[in-house]
């Protein structure tokens, strides 16, 4: 895997950083995209390059700007002249009560969660086809079971689920496309008021997961599941199971 390359959006911290570490441990060169978390991104790149020289690069882009997303794709290809895996991990998440949601919210939530993955998939599909590569999209259990007062976020993730299915059909057989739908893993920092206990209590395993659970699923779908495409794997402790008796 020494020559293989992965681009991970939103890779500087939290789940994205765990995904980056998992790919780096498998010998990949890791292209770390970030937007605002420059210090975290530089620290992660330094960590990787200290472990293995010239094994990480940084790419900054605002994913709500489609021109910057296309530039990100071009810069990613310029780094190593190949791409083996694209992980669309970056995401914006905040409440949009139905009566208050406006145009800026559409731009932010649909732009980062849906349009950016589409643009990157579109731009990078030829390079991924050349390497027989794979795409993994970070969806959400809320794509199927909407979260109260988060209609735009849920709509965007539902669109990303549809993109996962449709692009798997269109890009096959050269490129596999799958998704991971996390359940309760890391609570968004701006959502400290969420009832974490009630949410975890709704899982079959009665606990939150760890970022490593998501990273492991992404690695499996990207590298170790050659006959799997067009699937969305729920890593949610059983939260998406039907209610008892339902």
Strand and helix map with partners:
Blueprint: E1 5-8, H1 14-25, E2 29-34, H2 38-51, E3 56-60, H3 66-80, E4 85-88, H4 103-131, E5 134-138, H5 151-171, E6 176-182, H6 196-201, H7 211-223, E7 232-235
Parallel strand pairs: 1-2, 1-4, 2-3, 4-5, 5-6, 6-7
Helix pairs in contact: 1-7, 3-4, 4-5
Molecular structure report:
- By secondary structure, the chain is α/β, with parallel strands linked by helices.
- It is 45% helix and 14% strand.
- It has 7 helices and 7 strands, in the order βαβαβαβαβαβααβ.
- The chain has a 7-stranded parallel β-sheet with strand order 3-2-1-4-5-6-7, sandwiched between helices.
- α4 packs parallel to α5 (151-171).
- The radius of gyration is 17 Å and the shape is globular.
Features:
globular; single chain; 246 residues; 7 helices; 7-stranded parallel beta sheet
Summarize the structure.
Mean pLDDT is 90; it is low at 189-193. This protein is an alpha/beta fold and 246 residues long. The chain is built from 7 helices and 7 strands, in the order βαβαβαβαβαβααβ.
Number of helices: 7
Strand content: 5-15%
Assembly type of the chains comes to single chain
Low-confidence stretches: 189-193
Tell me the helix content. Answer: 40-55%
Note the overall shape: globular
Could you say which structural class the secondary elements and strand pairing correspond to?
alpha/beta
Termini distance? 46 Å
Radius of gyration: 17 Å
Can you write the helix and strand succession as a string?
EHEHEHEHEHEHHE
The total count of strands amounts to 7
Overall pLDDT level? 90
| Spatial arrangement of strands, main beta sheet | 3-2-1-4-5-6-7
Biggest sheet features: 7 strands, parallel
